[in-house]
Amino acid sequence: QVQLVESGGGLVQAGGSLRLSCVASERTFSWYYMGWFRQAPGKEREFVARISRSGGSTYYADSAKGRFTISRDNAENTVYLQMNSLQPEDTAVYYCATSWAGGYSPGQYNYWGQGTQVTVSS
């Protein structure tokens, strides 16, 4: 079983930046696509970004394009989400997750971290 631990969340003003990290417990980290999702209070969990096993392919939700960058370091078993130009609507708990298939639905991801809170003030 893969354990994932996110960090890097916090409180930031609109227009600011944060870098989220997610460290995996297993050396098999490089076997998985990795995704970032977020969930705001009262809303469903939504896809943010995903990255292929090698890091050579990325895909973003429309809300993240041009502002967020997903990357990974397989030697460090870590995936990152650099978030720039943050807005209040980005406020949510952010989760990283593993997937064999690299889809965009939460149901296609098998292991999840505990989440890290991101709050953007206006």
Topology readout:
Layout: E1 4-7, E2 10-13, E3 18-24, E4 33-39, E5 46-51, E6 58-60, E7 68-73, E8 78-83, E9 92-99, E10 116-121
Parallel strand pairs: 2-10
Antiparallel strand pairs: 1-3, 3-8, 4-5, 4-9, 5-6, 7-8, 9-10
Question: Could you explain the architecture of this structure?
Answer:
- With 122 residues, the chain is mainly β.
- Helix content is 0%, strand content 47%.
- It contains no helices and ten strands.
- The strands form two sheets. It has a six-stranded mixed β-sheet with strand order 2-10-9-4-5-6, with no helix packed on it.
- It is globular.
- The mean pLDDT is 96.
Query: How many strands appear in the DSSP assignment?
Result: 10
Give the strand line-up of the largest sheet: 2-10-9-4-5-6
**Overall mean confidence score, pLDDT:** 96
Structural class: mainly beta
Helical proportion, percent range: under 10%
Q: What are the secondary-structure elements, in order, as H or E?
A: EEEEEEEEEE
The count of helical stretches stands at 0
Mass-distribution shape: globular
Query: How is the biggest beta sheet arranged?
Result: 6 strands, mixed
How far from one another are the termini? 40 Å
Please indicate the percent range of residues in DSSP E strands (runs of 2 or more).
Answer: over 45%
As residue ranges, the low-confidence spans are none
Rounded to the nearest angstrom, the radius of gyration is 13 Å
